């Protein structure tokens, strides 16, 4: 299992689309297109289809998650400051290529730690 990215969420990530580092593009097969539907397993074991698009800015493509991302945000009640990670992890039984995780900063025994977020609804 290899982390494609791990990012603290900003307002745009919550309200519109989730942009992430260009280096993660190496994990996505766009097959010559500008978007690809990723088969993603969430922490509850549910299979989700989340679209990954490439927005072209000059000489480089900026990747972002769009269709399916906002439903994930709602289902896990994500908010600004939470973290999201996408990991390259195949589950042949489920047919997924990736796993997505959401974390929130909590205080545990006086220390700040990142705790896993369960699905809210």
TrEMBL record:
Keyword presence, Transcription: yes
One example GO MF annotation: DNA binding
Leader sequence residues: none
InterPro entries xrefs: B3_DNA-bd, DNA-bd_pseudobarrel_sf
Subcellular location: Nucleus
Annotated Gene3D superfamilies: DNA-binding pseudobarrel domain
GO cellular component annotations of the record: nucleus
Keywords: DNA-binding, Nucleus, Transcription, Transcription regulation
Stated name of the protein: TF-B3 domain-containing protein
């Amino acid at each position: 299992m290899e982390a494609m990215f791990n990012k603290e969420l900003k307002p745009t990530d919550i309200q519109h689309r989730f942009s992430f580092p260009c280096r993660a593009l190496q994990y996505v097969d766009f097959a010559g297109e500008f978007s690809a539907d990723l088969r993603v397993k969430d922490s509850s074991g549910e299979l989700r289809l989340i679209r990954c698009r490439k927005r072209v800015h000059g000489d480089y493509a900026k990747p972002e998650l769009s269709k399916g991302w906002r439903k994930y945000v709602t289902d896990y009640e994500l908010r600004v400051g939470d973290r999201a990670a996408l990991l390259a992890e195949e589950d042949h039984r489920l047919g997924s290529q990736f796993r997505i995780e959401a974390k929130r900063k909590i205080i545990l025994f006086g220390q700040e730690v990142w705790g896993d977020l369960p699905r809210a609804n």
